[in-house]
Amino acid sequence: MAESMSESGHSAFRTSEKYFKSRAPHPEIAAGLIKRRFRKRLDPAQSYPLLQGQGVLDLSRPVGQEKEDEVKRAGWKPGEDPLGGRPARKIRVDKPGAGSRDGYIVGDGLLLIPGYLNETEQLALVRSSLSEYTCPPNPLSLSTHYVLPKASETSLFSLYASDPETLVPSIASTLLDVDTLRPSPSPTPSSSSSAKRQLTQNQAASEEGYDSIVQRVEGWKGDEPSMKLKSKTAKKLVETELRWANLGWVYNWTNKAYDFTSTPPPTFPEPLAETCKDIVRGIPWDEVFGNIDDVCGEGYEEGGRIRPDGYHNWGEDYAPDTGIVNFYQTKDTLMGHVDRSELDPYRPLISISLGHAGIFLLGETTRQTPPIPIVLRSGDVLVMAGRGRKCYHGIPRIMEGTLPDHLKLIEGGQEEEEDETTRACKRFISNARININARQVFPKGFRRGGTGTVLE
């Protein structure tokens, strides 16, 4: 792909982000061609960015079943070609007990597996994400600022499910002895901020080395809680301010590194680990890397293709030990970035989409290369491995109105068919998207301590 910089001075990746983020009204409204009194009658879809002509990959749409396509029903207008006019090599991916399914190689080490999870598996993983993965000892985005319940049976989400108006005290309220009986409606730094965001580029962990990371992180005293926050209800925190839950090795957001100073880390959920292992085992990696001559290591050149050393053993030795569960509301975004904090920079990152569909931008190793927009629906799996781990990616848009029917609340007098937890999960996901991403921090045979050497 050719290098590209827009006339505005934005990188090609940023230009694409701004296009899909835009909620500007329909051009006819902006031009004043529609009378003001009719504006409120317009369908929200009038402000959706056009997908046609943008080279959008839309590979998980139901073929020949347009009425079942929640994206089209919501008013989004997908292009005619699911491939968006782009090359994508089809492969077959095995799944235990379910035969095989189509997967697509959309870049070097980049694979999309549409609809990998069925409807039952999606709902089960939504439940786990909210009712299990948000429980102690897993850190949450809220942990620094609020006094969260310490036991899983009285976790934040259990309060949301059983008594959503329960007040959760902010740490500031306990330190300052302020009145906590009235929740504050004001926005918090976790949900919005007027400060200009500074982009930082952290050194890749594989280049920095284990010992240097330990030394850099061990002096960290922890983030300071905001003294401006008041108590809020469990409903408010879960539905508008919960951003992420950390699984396994704890990622230190301030230092952009894993905290190796605490042993052992919280346990990575075994069922999720098995799902990720099944995904990796089912991919025919020889078809992904087998025709690539370059081998990662001393001979690596930026922009060159990579065949990771030992990739043929991933089906047996891949073991995810860390992950982030991202909780998006429909107006949230994830700006373009590269995940570079794992000591093994090439092992697969598994990304699972649940709930509302989203526009995923898959870039290259520089922001100046135009990214590929991909529609990710609930149940889709994206795998980034090899050189794909060095590519910029982000989510500039959650696609409003695209929640699939099987994740919607049962109504019409049949509510008793769902338990309290399931209904709470469906209330949350009714305006949200969940992304689970899992990775493996250490190379095979890595031994912590001392010089942090790798054993052959």
TrEMBL record:
Compositional bias segments (type: Polar residues): 195-205
Fe2OG dioxygenase domain span: 318-442
Binding positions for Fe cation per the UniProt entry: H337, D339, H393
Ranges of compositional bias, category Basic and acidic residues: 64-73
SUPFAM superfamilies to which the protein is assigned, alphabetical: Clavaminate synthase-like
Note describing how the cofactor binds: Binds 1 Fe(2+) ion per subunit.
InterPro entries in the cross-refs: Alkb, AlkB-like, AlkB-like_sf, Oxoglu/Fe-dep_dioxygenase_dom
Region (Disordered): 59-95, 178-211
A Pfam family annotated for this UniProt entry: 2OG-FeII_Oxy_2
GO cellular component, one term: nucleus
GO MF annotation terms: dioxygenase activity; metal ion binding
Named cofactor requirement(s): Fe(2+)
Source organism, top-level taxon: Eukaryota
Keyword annotations from UniProtKB, A to Z: Dioxygenase, Iron, Metal-binding, Oxidoreductase
Matching PANTHER family: ALKYLATED DNA REPAIR PROTEIN ALKB-RELATED, NUCLEIC ACID DIOXYGENASE ALKBH1
Protein name in UniProt: Fe2OG dioxygenase domain-containing protein
Taxonomic source organism: Filobasidium floriforme
